[in-house]
Amino acid sequence: MLAFEQIPNVIKKMPKAEIHLHLEGAFTFDFLFELVQKYGSDPELKSIDDLKKKFIFKDFPNFIKTWFWKNQFFKRPEDFEESTYKTIKNLSLQNVIYAEVFFSPWDFVPNGLKMEEITEAIISGIQKAENELPIKCGLIADIVRDHGNKDAMHRLLQTTPFLNRGIVGVGLGGNELDFPPILFKEVFLEAKKKGFRTTVHAGESAGAESIFTAVNELQAERIGHGVRAIENSDLVEYLYYKQIPLEVCITSNLKTRVFSSLNEHPFDKFFRRGLLVTVNSDDPPMFGADITDEFFLLYDKLKYSFEELRKISLNTIQVSFLSDDEKKLYSKIINDYWRDIT
């Protein structure tokens, strides 16, 4: 039997997959501080510690405000390429073998950049990481609610040339309360026709109705977060019987005050009921927890067994946008690891 002090290393080395991670929120503080110094900013930001204090959130709106604040420092394509490479490298160091990551190029158009050059730079950063490291990565273009639905179809058309050339799907993040899913029904149905895989953030800052709409009207294959389904027992049962995947981000939900404590968070209830849940980090440096920390939280605080950690890892591969052959390959890697451990 393994001693407790051995567990963190076991969890760090376990093969992992992650399907809810925002590239723009997965920067390293070292690199962001380099950009702050490079482009100039608040003179009070004299150290990385000062920078980190900017990322202590009072609530979800404060998180969104900080999100857009840090975007001002990504001004050139090479900033995106280097940040992406460092992010994917960091995932590989945690033995993440597969990741699907959101990116939102339209957030940076005010910086004088074009969507296409940002996308090319990010794809280049991923390819560099994949060539050097044992990791595969798929991109999900976040259509971004906050830019409105009027031009959403144009954003989809800009994304289409990159389909299967780095981009595997489209998502919908941002301000869920002011921009509900129904506004984006047309663009998501068109995306499915074009061959994009789809996922929608719902049930994070808004309630159960947002999830129902994402699934039934937008025909989303997966739900980002989905945790406020707990407010509606009929919806919980619906998610169970339909086996609709949830991309759950526990620490994120606690830091943005969706739930005030781990005891209130519904992940464990969902898992025990048999919902198809995955665990993800969302925006690791912004919330102070990476994917390794999330799995350790399950083991240490919620008392999950190795078998349950293996099951959640396999869930993630199962609901990913990989091909069937790739799913078999990555599932085997996960099973082989745990067979040797146990």
Largest sheet report? 8 strands, parallel
Helical residue percent band: 40-55%
- The residue ranges in which pLDDT falls below 50 over 5 or more consecutive positions are none
CATH superfamily: Metal-dependent hydrolases
What is Rg? 19 Å
Strand content: 5-15%
Structural class: alpha/beta
Shape: globular
What is the H-and-E element order? Answer: HEHHHHEHEHEHEHEHEHHEHHHH
Mean pLDDT: 95
The total tally of domains equals 1
By CATH, the topology is: TIM Barrel
Count the E strands.
Answer: 8
State the CATH class. Alpha Beta
Number of helices: 16
What distance separates the N and C termini?
9 Å
How are the strands of the biggest sheet laid out side by side? 1-2-3-4-5-6-7-8
- In the CATH hierarchy, the architecture is Alpha-Beta Barrel
Concise structural overview:
The chain has 16 helices and eight strands. By secondary structure, the protein is of the alpha/beta class.
Describe how the helices and strands are arranged.
Layout: H1 7-13, E1 16-22, H2 29-39, H3 48-53, H4 60-71, H5 77-93, E2 96-103, H6 115-132, E3 136-142, H7 152-159, E4 167-172, H8 185-194, E5 197-202, H9 208-216, E6 222-225, H10 233-242, E7 246-248, H11 250-255, H12 267-273, E8 277-279, H13 284-287, H14 291-300, H15 306-319, H16 324-341
Description:
By secondary structure, the chain is α/β, with parallel strands linked by helices. It has one domain (4-341): Metal-dependent hydrolases (TIM Barrel, Alpha-Beta Barrel), CATH 3.20.20. The protein is built from 16 helices and 8 strands. It has helices at residues 7-13, 29-39, 48-53, 60-71, 77-93, 115-132, 152-159, 185-194, 208-216, 233-242, 250-255, 267-273, 284-287, 291-300, 306-319, 324-341; strands at 16-22, 96-103, 136-142, 167-172, 197-202, 222-225, 246-248, 277-279. It has an 8-stranded parallel sheet. Helix 6 links the parallel strand 2 and strand 3. Helix 5 runs parallel beside helix 6. The longest helix is centred in the middle third of the chain and has 18 residues, at 115-132. The termini are close together. The relative contact order is 0.13. The mean pLDDT is 95.
